[in-house]
Design goal:
Strand content: 25-35%
Largest sheet: 8 strands, antiparallel
Order of helices and strands: HHEEEEEHEEEEEEEEE
Strand order of the largest sheet: 9-5-6-7-11-3-2-13
Shape: elongated
Number of helices: 3
């Protein structure tokens, strides 16, 4: 089956392929009398390249069912945080924080969690601690996006860089339409996504659950009960 590659990885994959080809050719020319050396290097290079290709794969996702009042996971990964917190940047109220950690083996494209309109988008410089640590949400390199649903609920989504992730890409800008089947960004290598949901939301996942971006429902909103100002 043909693997679609995310455009964020095209340049990296071309450069990496060229570098690996040069290295393997040089090793072959220098060590052709010792086949085990260049065969081992070729095997390692092939496996490494395929892992990077796997990281940049870009599957097309379709949500099945009625998306009204549903929050869908923005990322592939594991639920690592689910707690009531105060969100100080934009919502400025208590919310339910639901965080999904992405390992290097997960798809790293990020989907919009709800349908609606982007009303806020801001990038923050920061540290590069391990993304599964609680402090990474406020101290690491991160990007915050807020989507307002047609029912008036404000859902905050935060892309958080990890120890290996050195670049967060955010496509969402204020005024853009948000659709759960569309990519809102991409994070290169291990990282996490935080969702901040109204306190009245029904949470559909638990700690340790695995999610599929653009597909797995993680919460059901209750319009009118807990609206963010």
């Amino acid at each position: 089956m043909r693997v679609k590659i995310h455009h964020e990885g095209t340049g990296i994959l071309i450069t990496l392929l060229a570098a690996l080809l040069v290295i393997n050719v040089l090793v072959y020319l220098l060590c052709r009398q010792i086949p085990a050396i260049y065969i081992t290097l070729l095997t390692i290079s092939t496996i490494f390249y395929l892992l990077v290709v796997n990281f940049f794969r870009s599957p097309k996702r379709h949500f099945k069912g009625d998306a009204k009042d549903i929050v869908v996971s923005s990322a592939d990964g594991k639920v690592v945080a689910l707690e009531e917190v105060y969100e100080p940047e934009f919502l400025k109220c208590k919310c339910i924080q639901l965080s999904v950690f992405m390992s290097v083996f997960n798809v790293h494209a990020n989907w919009f969690p709800v349908n609606g309109e982007v009303i806020y988008s801001k990038h923050h410089s920061g540290r590069f601690m391990a993304a599964y640590l609680p402090k990474s949400s406020t101290e690491n390199e991160r990007s915050t996006v807020v989507i307002r649903t047609p029912e008036g609920q404000d859902i905050l989504m935060r892309q958080v860089a990890g120890a290996m992730a050195r670049r967060i890409v955010t496509y969402a800008e204020p005024g853009n339409e948000a659709n759960i089947e569309d990519h809102m960004g991409f994070i290169k290598f291990g990282s996490r996504i935080d969702l901040y949901l109204p306190l009245g939301s029904e949470i559909l996942v638990k700690l340790g659950d695995t999610t599929t971006g653009g597909v797995t429902p993680v919460a059901h909103l209750y319009p009118g009960k807990e609206k963010h100002a």
